[in-house]
From TrEMBL:
InterPro entries tied to this protein: TPR-like_helical_dom_sf
Stretch list, region Disordered: 958-981
Protein species of origin: Streptomyces adustus
Gene3D superfamilies with a match to the protein in the record: Tetratricopeptide repeat domain (1.25.40.10)
Lineage summary: Bacteria, Bacillati, Actinomycetota, Actinomycetes, Kitasatosporales
Protein name: Tetratricopeptide repeat protein
Amino acid sequence: MSGITDFDSLRRAMAENGGQPEGPARNARAEELLVEAERLNIPLAVVEALGHQLKVYNYSSEKDKMFVPFARLLRMWDERPEDFDEYETHSLHWVFKWMSAGMLDQPHIPLASVEKWLGEMERRYRLAGHSERAVRSAEFSVAAHVGDLDRAERAHAAWLAADRDAMADCHACELHGQGWWESERGRDAEAVRLWGPVLDGEFSCAHEPHTVLASSLLPLLRLGRLDEARANHLRGFRLVRSMESMRDAYADHVEFCALTGNEARGLELLAERPAYFTDGGQPRSRLEFMAVVALLMDRLALLGLGDQQVPGPAGRTWTAAALVGHAREEALALAGRFDARNGTSYVSDRARARMARLPLVERLPLGVRGTRPTAAAAPVAAAPAAGRPVAADLGALLAEARRLSDTLQPEAVEAWAAVSRAAEDVELDARDRAEIADHEAMDAGPEGAELFERAAVLYAEAGDPGEALAARTRAAYVRALTGESDTAVATVEGPYDEVLALYAQDGTGVRQTASVLMGRARVLMQRVHAGDGPPPEPVLAAAEAAAREVLALVGGRTQDDVRLASRAAESQAMLAELAALTGDARTGAELFARAAAAFVAAGLPWFAVEYEARLAVLAHQLGDIAEAERALRAALEHGGPHLEAVGRAQLHLQLAEVLGGRGQAEEAAEHALEAAHWADEAGQGPALGAWARHLLGGFLLRQERWAEAAEVLESALPDLSAETHGDGAIVQTQWWLGDCLSELGEHRAAAERRLQAAEIARHWPEQHDHATLAHLAAENLGHAGLPAEADRAYTRAGDLWRAMGNVHGLVRALRARAWLALRAEAGADGTGADKAGTDRARALMTDALRACETALPAADDEEARERLVTELGHTHRQFGDLLARSVVEDSGDESIHGVFEEALSQMAEAVVVFGSLGPRARHSRTGAQLAAGWLEADLGRPADAAARARAVLEAYSADGRSEGAPDGTAGDDETAQARRAEARQLLQVLEEQAAK
């Protein structure tokens, strides 16, 4: 059985099919429905079925199928126009525009046929009395496509000059076309200005702002408006992701990724739509798609990733190098077909230009997951051949390396590496070899201890016993860092005693002595952190004494010696750390600030980064959020280009959290975005990056940037784990995502997210979040048209609210279930409910009233009592509304009268309850009074109804203030205005009834 038995069932089936996702399945169903329509032997049914088929073809990848049903429709119109009603007549003329665009998209249709069709469209529109606006718009599209720019400009001007009428495209589509042309002509700023009303949501339609968001990406990048480009990509891609017919807009998003250093995301986009490589129903959009595929593959090849496996046409495995050739060939072949049809080279020229575009920004962070593809590291340049004269170069390299070392520059280690490479086959003296080994050790991490020992031997051989002792101390520190704290402490005592003796005999300088003392202090500080619990007092005391000893040695000697200044600053930082460890956060903060300032004063700001960051943590603990913010900003500034990716990510993340806590969501989002980017760069995407995306999504949500937030939060979820981030972070992310999806109207998806979060929260000791999430999910399920599922979720929430003693949550859940019961059992006309639904709804509302009334005597204080009274008033009001709406129109007068009397009783109770709360509940009271007034009018009691309307007018005095409104508060708000208007409307209706 097909289920199509009459015209109404056919229309319901077409409406249902129209709501299905775009694609071949929907198209196939439309074809089946046309067969069913023909069986009904009703001409209008066939017309509507053909129109439905046309629409689903147009919004799919099978656009080439549109021409057959349209030709049949046009023939039917020419033969029997009386078979078309007003709507189908309008639709027939409307889809002329689809045919015009559709012909341009098909290179096998001759240009002469396109021009002939344009003339036919103009003739028929004139006969139907339509403006030429849509015709000139179609002409503009033809001229712009073939590259006849003069004709395109004339048609564009004529299009804008013609009157808008019922055949004109919607404002959103027209603005898209106008802005596109401005961008094509190099006027990007004007294009973005024209698109403004669409981007801001003033105008929209089935495909807007989807296409405007996509078209705006390249102009915004060229204008340097990167934040807007990022936002439009995140918003726009979300809209086109599931729409099969929007391959050209999808291509714009892939191109955006290729031009902003987001090649990895571009590959993800290609992987989501494998059919786009081969769908042939719209050759022009396939040309655009293959052109940007070639562009993206070229980018990968330039990054040295030509051998990387990439998504491509089904049937084989593709590398970037192979796909770039295939995509380029396909794009140019398609372009050639269009040019052969058009008699120009314009389409091919544009395709080549698109494939040759260069990146407009090195890397634009998007906030979503993704790491930049990187090629294998280039081989290190070969060392000079033996016997090659390198002495002069080597001398310069040595001098530069020593200069950088003496001033503690970050580039010193690399400079010494360059010396090492240059000196591979050169005979050096012991001093040179000692310094090379010393700096190799500094760059070797845990493996550096032996290199430091080797450097110590060479320093001694070179006649510098003090530097030899310093190198031995550095070796001990490496061992402390690798877990051998006790051994390191014992080892470092020898160099310490020897250097003090040497220094006392002028056998070494203050620099070398300070280096040994600092090394010993570092070893002792490492022992402070070695245990699992708090360090013993002697350990703390030893570390503090060592730090103070360094300060005593270098005190007064730091002005002209950067190295000594750095020793003094680091000693201050050690004392700060010890103070913080012993619970003296304020002293710790002061000392960290002093250490950071000393490094900056010495011209070594990059060393201040760590201590500004630690100061920020202590300031936050002390409640000095402003100082925490200052310190983090300073750390980022001091680090500059020397910060490693992971450190930069951590600082941006901390600053984002601080700013977010201060309510500065916009700037907090910027720092969370940077944190996510640098975490990905550091390979920390699944840990640090996921947390940054979690925060970024929350900050975007605070700004009501729902689509962007949803993209970011969905990207964060796969990497969030209870072990790393805590299950609270997962619940919060799901919760925020549910909020975003609700705002975007994706209620089923929002419910799924909220229920997933509720499943985690159900295991928590405190059940408030569990109940709230279940309640919110129920709301979504109701909006999604799933009443049974919504009722179950509300029941779950209500049980939780009851168990927690939360009367307000329980009452609201019961009221929501009552409305669901009424609507779920509504009659076919949607105006009433059957007896079972009404009885169930009544029972639930009665339960809600009883819950309020039972809780009132136990209210803890006046505020709690007032909140419960308010809830009671709203429940009476909703009960009255529910009863009034439960009436079925074909019920007898006596039955309707009885239900309205019950509803009026509830409304009257609401008026009394709200009245007991005084001026603060005035709007609620007057709303109930007006509802009661309308019921009394329906019950034939005009005098009582009029009295209620006048009471409302009395409540809102004519001087623009609500009666009883607090001093200095304007009472003439929107609600007051609406109440007065409704009261006057009720009085007018009563007067008109009396006059009849």
